[in-house]
Specification:
Helix content of chain A: 40-55%
Strand content of chain A: 5-15%
Mean pLDDT of chain B: 71
Strand content of chain B: 5-15%
Mean pLDDT of chain A: 81
Distance between the termini of chain B: 51 Å
CATH class of the largest domain in chain B: Alpha Beta
CATH topology of the largest domain in chain B: Rossmann fold
Shape of chain B: flat
Strand order of the largest sheet of chain A: 2-5-8-1-9
Largest interface: A-B, 42 and 46 residues
Oligomer: heterodimer
Low-confidence stretches of chain B: 72-77, 127-164
Low-confidence stretches of chain A: 1-8
Chain lengths: 285, 397
């Protein structure tokens, strides 16, 4: 066994993110093994927020690649700005050297994280939107930590290996080669106690009884069956924000079974009617 | 280290790979794991790549580090066992026959198919009779690696644990709910169907083609020449035929409706037709299958590049499929057997698939499914199945 290497910069959670021990450990292991970490979980459980939190607590800059379905891998790596070059060659009023193609190469998000002078956190958000080719090719690049710019026949090597966080919303599994190269964690929906702490971080001044009443109602609402998109942490936070901005709101209202601003919690109209009906039924009881 | 643990995971059906195992060793060797709790978390992150297996992982972990007995796979696919039995039978007929208390000679006369059938029936009897069945069946490959009890092989359990012990965490089995696949939602179906769209240029030329503009400008000796293109729009034609008749489709109605409502918003040119059990002389445009019939022969006039998706459980009596006049609705006295009709459709449209909401594992039990599968490529109506079907439909050849 090798001697324990010192990891001075380990991740302990940030000011706006409540982290459970388990997840902290996995983040640290992924950083030590230099492997991308794949995060899955219900929408609104803080997958994206985690990357922000890691960047904040480690003091590294965060680079976010928002994956789109039409995206090609090369877009994420670099762009050859032919249009500007054409413009420059035609009008010649810029300081760039038109014969130097490299002056017209712009780094994409992955490229930026490679050429950055310091270690960065690279968040690849919603990878499931892209097709499998994109996913596999991207991991090749992240594995080798280098890519080629074909226009100028130059290889870009990562100066510092970024901390890679990948999120996926898909129920479906990603391809096997992809999974094989990532560490995996599934963010389970937080327990009420955990939720209490999350709410506290977001609303430090919220009084105990309001928070308790909100969280209780929230978990009761989550039990309504047949809903396509259950309200998650994000919705709860927004909902509390809405309640707080309402001067007429009293926690006693929730205890009586009334739920104002249901629309903040349910984003789909079919879900909303379903929930409204369930709330009305509960109140009658 | 932990080779046994690794193999137990594998035996239990968690897809773990040797690479991930080596990675775990690396994590152990750099001193990242200092307690059983760490091991629980780290090994899971490295070895298990889907939350569906988290529950299984918890069980194996408990078994391995605390000696909890793994449950007998009651729900284990009996067909698998039956197939294994057939192999066993080929090696040693007498032993197998004796286990069932049957006559070797009688069994020897059976064809392999009949044998499997026979084994299956016996197995079912046994599971019903004494819960868990015959022991020697259970020991086939999947049995736990012995009750080795508590053996954290040379693992240093150091430091005071700050939170729940890993064993306790595993015992909670928090991920029980994730071990089953959730229902298909509209959004998921949409993602799968989106790939079907075929983009072709159409409409006015109002999009600058940068690459061509540059090439033309160069040809023009630097004088800018802007090239416009047509926008890409979806021109894919889709015909969806849905089996909405009879109680056999009843359990799938929700699923089908989800698919249907999505398909409507997704494709510009989508025609939906309905049929009952199988396709005869006509299909209907209305769900009541009464007002607006359309003769199947007229489909010959359609664009042969149209994608045809049939959706049904393909489960019916064989005569409904094989005989002229076999239609279950008395109003539909057809002159030709339905199977000919299906073949006719398949000959009209090269890109055709049959989506079946019935689970794949049940397909072998229904004869008509087997017959229809020879005419149309059939896919399960799950995300994976749908994606495979879309791949097939999108193929150029």
């Amino acid at each position: 066994m090798k001697e324990q290497q010192p990891y001075p910069r380990t991740f302990r959670g940030a000011s706006r993110y409540v982290l459970d021990e388990e997840l902290a450990k996995i983040v640290n292991v992924s950083m030590a093994l230099e492997m991308p970490l794949l995060l899955k979980g219900e929408p609104g459980t803080g997958k994206t927020m985690l990357a922000y939190a890691i960047a904040e607590s480690l003091g590294m800059p965060l680079i976010t690649l928002n994956v789109k379905s039409s995206m090609k891998l090369v877009d994420a790596l670099y762009q050859y700005d032919t249009l500007t070059r054409l413009n420059d060659s035609r009008f010649g009023d810029s300081k760039r050297d038109v014969s130097d193609i490299e002056a017209y190469i712009r780094m994409g998000k992955i490229g930026q994280s490679f050429v950055a002078d310091e270690k960065t956190v690279l968040l690849i958000d919603e990878i499931d939107k892209a097709d499998t080719d994109f996913q596999d090719d991207m991991l090749d690049v992240l594995d080798q930590m280098s890519f080629d710019i074909i226009e100028i026949d130059k290889t870009v090597k990562a100066k510092n290996r970024p901390v890679v966080i990948i999120t996926s919303n898909a129920k479906k599994d990603l391809s096997d080669p992809f999974l094989g190269r990532c560490n995996f964690h599934h963010i389970a929906f937080p327990e009420p106690e955990m939720m209490r702490r999350i709410v506290e971080v977001h609303f430090p001044k919220l009084s105990e009884d309001v928070a308790q009443a909100c969280i209780q109602t929230f978990y009761r609402l989550r039990e309504i069956g047949g809903v396509e998109k259950k309200p998650a942490t994000r919705e709860l936070i927004n909902w509390i924000r809405a309640l707080r901005s309402d001067p007429d709101f009293r926690p006693a209202l929730l205890q009586r079974g009334e739920v104002p601003y249901l629309g903040v919690l349910y984003k789909k109209s079919s879900d909303l009617t379903l929930a409204a009906r369930a709330v009305a039924r509960l109140r009658r009881q | 280290m932990f080779i046994q643990f690794f193999y137990t995971l594998r035996d239990r059906g968690v897809p773990v790979t040797p690479t991930s195992y080596l990675r775990l060793q690396k994590a152990l060797s750099v001193g990242l794991v200092t307690s059983l709790e760490d091991f629980y978390t780290v090994a899971r992150a490295l070895l298990v790549k889907s939350e569906r297996y988290f529950d299984l992982y918890d069980q194996v972990f408990l078994h391995h580090f605390r000696g909890v007995e793994l449950k007998d796979p009651e729900t284990h696919e009996l067909t698998d066992i039956a197939k294994a039995l057939l192999e066993e039978w080929l090696k040693d007929p007498a032993a197998v026959a004796a286990a069932f208390g049957a006559d070797v000679k009688k069994l020897k006369k059976m064809t392999p198919e009949e044998l499997i059938r026979y084994f299956l029936d016996r197995l079912k009897e046994q599971t019903e009779a004494h819960h868990g069945g015959n022991r020697w069946i259970g020991t086939r490959g999947t049995s736990p690696v012995g009750h080795s009890g508590h053996h954290p092989e040379g693992m240093r359990v150091g430091g005071v644990s700050r939170n729940k012990s890993a064993v306790k965490v595993a015992m909670d089995r928090r991920y029980r709910d994730y071990s089953q696949e959730g229902p298909l939602t509209q959004a998921q179906l949409g993602e799968a169907l989106k790939r079907l769209r075929r983009m072709v240029p159409a409409g006015p030329k109002d999009l600058v083609n940068v690459d061509k503009t540059i090439r033309e400008t160069m040809r023009n000796a630097g004088e800018i020449e802007i090239v416009f293109d047509r926008r890409l729009t979806d021109r894919l034609k889709v015909i969806l035929m849905i089996d909405n008749g009879g109680w056999s489709m009843e359990p799938y109605v929700d699923l089908v409706q989800t698919l249907f409502s999505y398909a409507r918003s997704q494709f510009k040119d989508l025609r939906t037709y309905y049929f009952h059990n199988s396709v005869y002389d006509v299909v209907w445009q209305d769900a009541q299958r009464f007002y607006r019939p359309e003769r199947l022969d007229d489909f010959a006039l359609r664009d042969p590049e149209t994608r045809l998706i049939l959706l049904g459980d393909a489960s019916m009596s064989p005569y409904e499929l094989m005989y002229a006049g076999g239609a279950i609705d008395y109003t539909q006295r057809s002159t030709r057997p339905s199977i000919d009709r299906l073949k006719f459709l398949a000959s009209l449209f090269r890109h055709a698939v049959w989506l079946n909401p019935a689970p794949l594992r049940e397909w072998d039990r229904v004869r008509t499914i087997g017959i229809i599968r020879q005419v149309f490529p059939m896919y399960e109506l799950t995300l994976d199945g749908l994606e495979a079907a879309v791949r097939r439909l999108a193929a150029k050849t």
